[in-house]
TrEMBL record:
Gene3D superfamilies: 3.30.70.920. InterPro entries: Dimeric_a/b-barrel (IPR011008), Tscrpt_reg_AsnC/Lrp_C (IPR019887). Residues 6-76 form the Transcription regulator AsnC/Lrp ligand binding domain. This is Transcriptional regulator, AsnC family. It comes from the Bacteria. Pfam families: AsnC_trans_reg (PF01037).
């Protein structure tokens, strides 16, 4: 499993609805509300045999109320 972090910018007033929809999909291990340019941050474990972009698009990015996302890939450094 490869961990990635995904930040979500939501339509104003829709952050709680988006967060609920993300949890309903049961694909994130952690979900946080954040300050700054994005409203939510999720930690997602991508199966090794899956394409990251396709997996995220199919699992999360079609949720209504998401305006923009930022995906940060992680790499084993140590």
């Amino acid at each position: 499993m490869r961990p990635v972090f995904v930040q979500f910018r939501c339509t104003p007033g829709k952050t709680y609805e988006v967060a609920d929809a993300i949890y309903e999909r049961e694909v994130v291990s952690e979900l946080y509300s954040t300050s700054g340019e994005y409203d939510l941050m999720a930690k997602v474990y991508i199966p090794e045999d899956q394409d990251v972009g396709r997996y995220l698009s199919e699992q999360l990015f079609d949720i209504p109320g998401i305006n923009r996302t930022l995906t940060t890939m992680t790499f084993k450094a140590f």
